[in-house]
């Protein structure tokens, strides 16, 4: 896992506050292609399962899990770099 990214470096923030598993991963899967290869996507989620689910999704889908950061309001943000 690399260093986490600051909010200003994210090309896309997917707001999953209040969503329960598996909704944050479904949103990530649907929307990560909205950014160009190499750009960062942040899944902002209050569901504690996202801390495990986002890195696992990255491993399964061949994307890079950059690390955990925080959104402007302090909510955990799980940062993914689009690889393909």
Structure, described:
It is a single chain. This protein is α+β, with helices and mostly antiparallel strands and 84 residues long. It has a single domain, classed as TusA-like domain (Translation Initiation Factor IF3). The protein is 25% helix and 29% strand. The chain has helices at residues 23-31, 50-61, and strands at residues 12-16, 40-45, 64-70, 76-81. Strands 1-2-4-3 form a four-stranded mixed beta sheet, covered by helices on one side. Helix 1 links the parallel strand 1 (12-16) and strand 2 (40-45). Helix 1 (23-31) packs parallel to helix 2. It is globular. The model has no long low-confidence stretch (mean pLDDT 94).
What is this structure's SSE topology?
Layout: E1 12-16, H1 23-31, E2 40-45, H2 50-61, E3 64-70, E4 76-81
Parallel strand pairs: 1-2
Antiparallel strand pairs: 2-4, 3-4
Helix pairs in contact: 1-2
Elements, N to C (H/E): EHEHEE
The tally of domains stands at: 1
Q: Detail the poorly predicted runs.
A: none
Main sheet: strands, sense, barrel: 4 strands, mixed
The helix tally amounts to 2
The gross shape turns out to be globular
Structural class assignment: alpha+beta
CATH arch. level architecture: 2-Layer Sandwich
Mean pLDDT: 94
Our measurement of the CA-to-CA distance between the termini, rounded to an integer number of angstroms, reads 18 Å
Describe the strand arrangement of the main beta sheet, using strand numbers. 1-2-4-3
Helix content: 25-40%
Radius of gyration: 11 Å
What is the tally of beta strands? 4
Question: What share of the residues does DSSP label as strand, in percent?
Answer: 25-35%
Instruction: Specify the CATH class.
Output: Alpha Beta
CATH fold-level label: Translation Initiation Factor IF3
CATH superfamily, please?
A: TusA-like domain
